[in-house]
Amino acid sequence: MRDTTDFDAFYAGSVRRVTGHVYAMTGSRAEAEDLTQEAFARAWQHWDKVSGYADPEGWVRMVAFRAGVSAWRKAVGRVRAHRRHGPVGVAPEASVDNVAIVAALRRIPAVQRQAIVLHHLVGLSLEEIAAETGVAVGTVKARLSRGRQAMAPLLSDRENGIGPDRREAPGHA
What we know:
The chain is mainly α and about 170 residues long. Helices cover about 70% and strands about 0% of the residues. It has helices at about 5-25, 30-45, 45-50, 55-85, 95-105, 110-120, 125-135, 135-150.
C-alpha cells in the first residue's frame, strides 16, 4: 500500500491554487472544481511517477487544462451535430394498426416474433435471418409461417372489437 502522507501534503498545499487557475481558464467554479479533482485523482494514480517531477503542480494543472479542453471539444461537437442534423423530431403517434401489431407480436413465441420482425419490419431475406439467428433457412420459414398463423386471429377485426364477426352474413348483427 502506498504512503499517502506526501500526496496529502501536496494536495493540501496546491488544490486551492490549481482550482483558481482552472477557474480562470473555464470561467465556471463548478467545472474548475470537477476538473481539478479529476486531475488530482490522476496524479494519485500515478503518484510514484508524478512525485518525481520537478513541478508536480504544473503536471496537475496541465492535466486539468487538457481535461477541460477535451470537455469543451466534446461540447462543440455536440453543438455542431445538433446544427447539422437538427433537433430530434417528434415521433409520430402510433396508429391503431401499429398498436395492434405490436400487441399481437407480444403474444406469440419469441423465436416467431424475431423471425417476423427481422423479415417484415427490418427487411432481411430468409438467408440473412438464418445467418443472424444461427438456424437453417427451413427453420426460419417454419417460424415465419407459424408466427403468421398465430398472429392472424389476434389481428382479426372481431378480436380487436371492430366491426361484425366475419362468420356472419353482411348486414346481420
